[in-house]
Amino acid sequence: MREVFHQSLEDVQGRLVEIAELVTVAIDKATRAFGTSDVALAEEVIEADAVIDEKAVELDELAIEILARQQPVARDLRIVVSALRMSASLERMGDIAEHIAQLTRMRFPERAIPKGLKSTFLKMGELDVEAARQLTELLRTQDGDLIDEIRNADDKLDELHVSVFEKVLSDSWQGDPSATVDATLASRYHERFGDHAVSVAKKVAYLSTGDWTTSTDTIDVVTPQ
């Protein structure tokens, strides 16, 4: 019976990795579509979001079934409850990728990136994709070194997010109202994607300590047994 329980926990981890992989593909396609006004690529992201949602629901149902049938305690309980919360964050990351793709589709055939901000948004896209890839690897390996890398990417995203607001609020900004709205929304989407990646990374760290207040600077993340 215990062996079956551990197989279920491994299944939970495997499903988290699968969803993270789908999210990585989604944000990669969404940022490329946003940067090149590729509406066909944007449509792929929008259509694929339903798959991410479905996978997240299936994971949640599995976690709830484990809670009901196995009644885990201590570390095992933390794993299952954390999986539910990670699933929610990953699903939201998929939604954000979809939102970026929707901006591309909405402005087509015009470019969605406002003039003067292309390099900033290209960098934000690169950082989001990097964070998503690192998060997938973190969920797969529980390599604690990746937590700081994800957080560093998020810090850079925060700085770029601030720079976008400074740009659109400056006297030199010549964008029309729609360009201002697009820049503000797109910047917020990119920034929030990084926030969710950090949120999931912190939950992985929590599994090692059981303490939300412990600094991730000193955490050695271990694989659940």
From TrEMBL:
Work out whether the entry's keyword set contains Cell division: no
The subcellular localization recorded is: Cytoplasm
Look up keyword ATP-binding and say if it applies: no
Q: Name one GO biological process term.
A: phosphate ion transport
One Pfam family, short name: PhoU
User: Would you say which domain of life the source belongs to?
Assistant: Bacteria
Report the residue ranges that make up the PhoU domain in this protein.
Answer: 17-103, 122-204
Q: Name one GO cellular component term.
A: cytoplasm
Question: Which InterPro entries did the record assign?
Answer: PhoU, PhoU-like_sf, PhoU_dom
Keywords, in A-Z order: Cytoplasm, Phosphate transport, Transport
User: Where along the sequence do coiled-coil regions lie?
Assistant: none
Protein task: Plays a role in the regulation of phosphate uptake.
Family according to the record? Belongs to the PhoU family.
Alphabetized PANTHER family for the sequence: PHOSPHATE-SPECIFIC TRANSPORT SYSTEM ACCESSORY PROTEIN PHOU (PTHR42930)
Describe the protein's quaternary organization and the partners it interacts with: Homodimer.
The molecule here is called Phosphate-specific transport system accessory protein PhoU
Source organism: Microbacterium sp. LWS13-1.2
Gene that codes for this?
phoU
